[in-house]
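Worked example

This section walks through a single chain of length 545. The input is the sequence exactly as stored; nothing has been trimmed or padded.
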Amino acid sequence: MEKRVTGIYFAVLLIGILYAIYAAFSFRIDIDTRIEEDTVIQWDDHMEMTQEGDVYYYRGILPPEDTSEKVIVYDTVHMYLEVFIDGNRVYELNAEKDRAVKTTGYCWNAIFLTEEDAGREIVFQVTPVYRDSKPQGNFFYGTYREIEHEILTERVVRFVLAVCIALAGIVLLLYDLFAGKKGSDAETIMQFAIFAMMLGIWSVIETQIPDWIFPGNMLIVFLSHLMLMVMPIPFMLFLRRMYHNGDSKLWSFCCYLDCAVIVVRVFLQIMGIFDLRETLLLTHICLLLFVSVIVGMTIHEIAMNELTRQIKLNCICVLVVLASTLLELAIYRLGNVSTPLSSIGFLFYIAVMGIITVRRSRRLMAQAKESALYRKLAFTDELTGLSNRTAFREDLKKRMVHDRTTGEEKILPTVIFMFDLNDLKKCNDTYGHDYGDQYIKMAADAIKKLFVQEGKCYRIGGDEFCAWAPYTSVEEINEKLRMLEQDIQELNSRGFVVMVSIAAGYAVYREGEDGSGLYSTMKRADVMMYEKKQKYKKAIDSYAT
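Given that input, the structure is written out below as tokens.
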């Protein structure tokens, strides 16, 4: 489920970003101003607001002193704007007619004044793009550079915190790519890293600093909506790993539902039916549903299971985020002072949960390495490094496959080889077990070479080896035995305390004859090997006499 959902939201996200880039270059925002260009005055009290239908008017009288090199900056969100000085239009913010994108996005509008404007009436005619949008009086008067300094200074801390959140996500993703291991825990880190990056990008956009640098840019508008739409999915995929019922269909339902909402919203935007802003309620509903599911799952976890340390820390961090966000809203409502408390809360959440997730990943990686080491020891012969008899039994099961035609299990065409070392006892008794071990190692290396390309060999006893390979032809079998004989001759040419000799036998699996499967084949190969061994002994005895 996780890979499917990840693929869906990545595909939709890619389509949305490509369309956002296309919109940024295709749907032009008309900004018609006069000239460009150092104490900043908040001018909200200087403007009188009236409303006629859907249009809002802000009127004020410009200062009687010299207004050259002065500017009035007004912040609009999804608004059309026209500015008049003594009835003459000096600024316009509008969208192209009959285009697929209705909004003008977030825009800092700078109206540059001249010396002749002193003492004249200035009128801001504001028309909301959407019916539920209302303009807010947010006027600044002063020089352009000082207004820019005040706006950016007010938001720089929140901007830096947002960048830190995105960077934390990037660091986690790089850790997952280069230091993490494949598996469910690696997927957890990846999903949390993606969530952190998306949260960081969305938070950066919410500071409105990108809007100051690129006023009315559609790419910024779409990225904000896309991040808000998509980031709940990787968060849910990350969160579900903490719960005992992480495989519940309710988690899957939430992810697929959000994927469907994303597809619908992006489709309606591309077709020009509804802007993303007009369908924002769908995402808000999904977010409320997700919160309800998470709360329900947490209550169920408390009732049915003991809370893990990770869930406890996650709940504490979420409470910190909620408390910091509510405190920021309270300070803003009571004192009209903007603070970065919510950004600090989110950064705290990302940092704590990121550290906990990485630590858990490293602990699981260490356990996996230890488990893999024990498994290797259980299936490996210590002297030769070959697999042992236990591994041979396990691997033979893998030669059994399901026949789609008959619906039955069948064994793939297989040839079994059996090998036995001649005169190993003589070597041990005469020269000691150290030389006997050398004999075994040399023979193991010679046999292993035959099955490097296909098949596998095993040490199943003191001087006994076996191997299997896919059966192709008798000629291929004889070629392997010929190569083994050549390697043995080369070993003997170098000289050893005894002559190296290996008795070899083989048998090809026959469905009708081998009633016990490959174990019957193995017995037939063992019979051939024993016959070869007896011939070798007779030859040695006759040579000795």
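What to look for: The first helix runs from residue 2 to 26.
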